[in-house]
Amino acid sequence: MSLAELSTAYENSARLLRQRMKELRLQLRQTDDPEEHWHLKRRLAELTPILTQMNELAELTAHYYDRGYWRSEKYTI
């Protein structure tokens, strides 16, 4: 698998995750149960950094071989 293909996979996964988070936010607005409210907020808090990382990796893998592209130290070996 090439980095371009990997980038596309990250983008697709991020899109699906954004959709799921949108659904969770809708459930959060519709619930009156405090326990369910807590669980939904916790789930959203867990998914947020995952989405951030997917977006960062999609960007990195899409432009990894571009001349002059600044690579984040976060993902270097």
Give the number of domains.
Answer: 1
Radius of gyration: 16 Å
Largest sheet: none
Task: State the end-to-end CA separation.
Answer: 20 Å
Task: Name the shape in a single word.
Answer: elongated
How many helices? 2
Q: Care to give the gist of this entry?
A:
This protein is mostly helical and 77 residues long.
List its salient traits.
elongated, single chain, 77 residues
Structure, explained:
Helix content is about 75%, strand content about 0%. The protein has one domain (about 5-75). The chain has helices spanning about 5-30, 35-65. Helix 1 (about 5-30) runs antiparallel to helix 2 (about 35-65).
What topology does this entry show?
Blueprint: H1 3-30, H2 34-63
Helix pairs in contact: 1-2
